[in-house]
Amino acid sequence: MTLAACTELVRIHDPDRFGAVLVARVEDRPALITLYALNLEIARAPFQSAEPMLAEMRLQWWIDRLEDMGTGKAPPLHDVLTPLWESWNRKAGPVACLAEARRRDCAREPFADPEGVVDYVKDTAGRLMGLAAERLGAPAGARGAVADQALGAGLAAWLRALPRLQPLGLGLDRQRPEDGVALAGIARDALRRAARSRRLLPRQAAAALYPGPRVRQFLDAVLKGDIDCFSQDVEVTPFQRRASLARLALTGRWWR
C-alpha cells in the first residue's frame, strides 16, 4: 500500500483523525497517516476470524512484525508496514503495544465494570494519541496532559460506539445506565484537566490531540440522561464535522 492508499483508508474509516491530519504540518502528515492506518488494521484483526485462537494468531503476526521493526529489521513488503517503516523506522517498535491491547477483543469479552473500560481505553486510544503527540513534538513534561486528553477523547469515542460494541460482546456485561454516566463523567473530568495544562503543549501537537467533533456536547447529554449509550447511536453530521475541523485549523484549539 502506498502512502496515498493509506491516506484513503484513514479518510474512509477514520474521518475525524483524517481531518485532523490535514491540520498538521506537511512534514508530519506521513507519520500520522501511517500510524492511523496501522491502528485501523490492528483494530480489525481480532474480527477476521470467529475463532479466538485464530484471531489472536492474526494479531500476533502484527506484534511480531512491529517488534522486529523496533530492532531495526525492515518488514517484508506490505501494504501498511512498508510505508510505516519509511516514516517511523525503529520508532515503530513501541507501536506493538497497540496490538497487545487488542488481545481481549479476540475473546469477545465484555467489561465487568467501568474501570475495565478505562484501562482498555488507556491502552488503545490513549497510547495511540500518546505516540502521535510525541511525534508532533509534545514534551515529556506534558505526558500527563496528553494522557488526560487521550482518556477523555477515547472514552467519548467508546461510548459513541457502544450500541455497536454491545452486540459483539465488547461492551459492558450489564447494561446499567449509571455505568455510562460514570464513564462520561470520567471523560469530562479528564478533558478538563488536559485543558488546564494546554500551555505545556506546542501548537503543532494540535493535530494529534484533537478529540473529535461535538465531544463536550455528547458527554453533557449522557451526564444529563438525555442519551442512552447502550441503545442510541448518535451520529455526527458532515456539517458538524467540517465545522469542528475548521475551528481546529483556524485556532489550533484542541481543548474543550
Strand coverage percent: under 5%
Q: Order of helices and strands, N to C?
A: HHHHHHHHHHHHH
Based on CA atoms alone, the radius of gyration comes out at 18 Å
Strand element count: 0
Helix content: 55-70%
- Using the alpha-carbon principal axes, give the shape: globular
**Average pLDDT rating:** 95
Number of helices: 13
Summarize the main sheet: none
Task: Summarize the SSE layout with pairings.
Blueprint: H1 3-13, H2 15-21, H3 29-44, H4 52-70, H5 81-88, H6 96-100, H7 103-106, H8 114-135, H9 143-165, H10 177-196, H11 206-209, H12 215-224, H13 238-251
Question: How would you describe the overall organization of this protein?
Answer:
The protein has 256 residues and is mostly helical. It folds into two domains: 1-108, no CATH class; 109-256, no CATH class. The protein has 13 helices and no strands. α1 (3-13) packs across α3 (29-44). The longest helix is centred in the middle third of the chain and has 23 residues, at 143-165. The model has no long low-confidence stretch (mean pLDDT 95).
